[in-house]
Amino acid sequence: MSEALADEIEAINSIYGDNTLTPSSQDQDSSIFILTLPGETASLRLQFPQTYPDVPLTVLGTHSSGSAGKHGAAARDLALFRDAVSEVYEPGQVCLFDAIEKVQELLSAVKEGEGEDEVPASPASDDTPTLNTSTEPSAGDLGPAPPWVLSIPFIENKSTFVARYAPVTSPTQAATFLAHLLASDKRVRTATHNITAWRIRGPNGASFQDCDDDGETAAGGRLLHLMQLMDLWDAMVVVTRWYGGQKLGPRRFALINQTARDAFVRAGLVKEEVPAGGGKKKGGK
């Protein structure tokens, strides 16, 4: 197993939950894994060639999880996942995280078209959204999903970091985007930290900027400082951390900013090549 694949497996299970991606117990071939799509009853059989990610993974088919779903749902999920892999794969770059996120978008679009309501809406809140809110409205109350651009996952000592960038034009919109993310994505909502920063140019020369540590002391201010150094405006970023049980010390701040910068690069805000191969373990304490 390559280091890139080992890192990817660790990242996927950190973000989406243990046993999301596991070796197949029914196959002697160690290159075959079972992927359980988040929130879905269908599981998929994937094969990772020895030269992955220089060559793409192969989606072999569905895997029975022992639970019954709607008729045709497994075939639908299989077809959508194959489409997602074909769209996001680039030679030399791990693609599973991007493929899972893409298939979630495709599934949401399909279910919206079918009139399905997968997750019951939670009671609406009468409070105006703020950056740090204890009672989140349901995603349906907050309108369409924000146009997030995601970083690759960065992993160190079993902690996983993922950043999301979105363009924003007002503090209220920034707060609403964060509320939508927390209301619609359980794995983000239950992460250890969601560190946020945003900067907005208002009318008549006014400007607005703010940040939220979300329990990671001083991280929000450092994230905001990065945006100031990069001269980014009308932008917000959310860096999500899933703690892996080993303290990183001051190194965590560099990883938070590195992850945010990757999201800015992928959004086209920085003239810089996107690194191939995904986030690598750096070691450290």
Automatic annotation (TrEMBL):
Sequence segments annotated as region (Disordered): 111-144
Q: Which UniProt keywords apply?
A: Cytoplasm, Repressor, Stress response, Translation regulation
Instruction: Give the record's GO CC terms.
Output: cytoplasm
Gene3D superfamilies for this protein: Impact, N-terminal domain, Ubiquitin Conjugating Enzyme
Where found? Cytoplasm
Q: Which GO BP terms, alphabetically?
A: GCN2-mediated signaling; regulation of translational initiation
* SMART domains found in the cross-reference section: RWD
Q: Where is the composition biased (Polar residues)?
A: 125-137
Pfam families in UniProt: Impact_N (PF01205), RWD (PF05773)
Where in the numbering of this chain does the RWD domain appear? Answer: 7-110
Main localisation: cytoplasm
Family membership, please give it.
Answer: Belongs to the IMPACT family.
Protein name per UniProt: RWD domain-containing protein
